[in-house]
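note to self: the first set is below, dont mix up w the second
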Amino acid sequence: MKIVGIMGSPRTNGNSDTIARQILLEAEKLGADTETFVLNNLTYKGCQACMGCKIGSDTCVIKDDLAPVLAAVAAADVLIMTSPIYFGQVTGQLKTFIDRTYSFLTPEYLKDPMSASRLAPGKKCVFVLTQGNPDENLFADVSANYERFFTWYGYEMSVIRGLGMRDKEDAAGNETLLEKARETARSLVC
């Protein structure tokens, strides 16, 4: 099993990364092959609406640091995406990555939603989101908005939310949340 982690936080080893790394470490212990990309360390741009991925290519035609990331995600069985909530939304780094996944849709995606995805069926996605505010109702719509798109690609989605994560080390000290991350890894690999 191949698992790719996409770290969307600009803060290295922050709360969303800590949770995702627990998933990845547990998955590795269970025999999964994992690969991690820290988006903030890459140089890339957003979707240019050039339609190159719909006319003449089955992949995004932009040649930058995100090209191998998109290829790794397409080849993986499991995708883990992470982001803190900034101003009510995922980080700009993750949003730009998500926009580039438009290349995962076939040219006929609007006419034939049943064959919209270029990805192999049976993939899973874990969306790890953290926020400083402890109110679980606040920003609950963020994962739902993106879940629509990733379900369209064929992913089975699950979400882990870390609430009240104001300080960089809050997730590391939350054993309940870390155990949920490890349980998630076990459910993915076993």
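second set (the one i keep forgetting abt)
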Amino acid sequence: MDSSGHVMGTRRGHVMLYALSTCIWCKKTRALLDRLGVDYHFTYLDLVEGREQEEAMAELERWNPQGSFPTIVIDGTRAVLGFDEARIRQALGL
């Protein structure tokens, strides 16, 4: 399993998903983004190490001080915390 990556799709702004590889809600969020055909980037914070993990965690905590998963950041201007299909669709303009 890749620790981070990019999934090609329809661009809805810059979509960044912070997740854990073992989190069922994170898997549901990725499945939803895939089903919607959204272009997005992702990082599994439990699979990255060292400086990359520190930087990703700092960015996650900027949007979600509780550090919970999943967290989606859109265009660096807004975030959706947790799996909430209606809020995710709304944030993506779908």
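remember for set 2: The chain has a mean pLDDT of 95.
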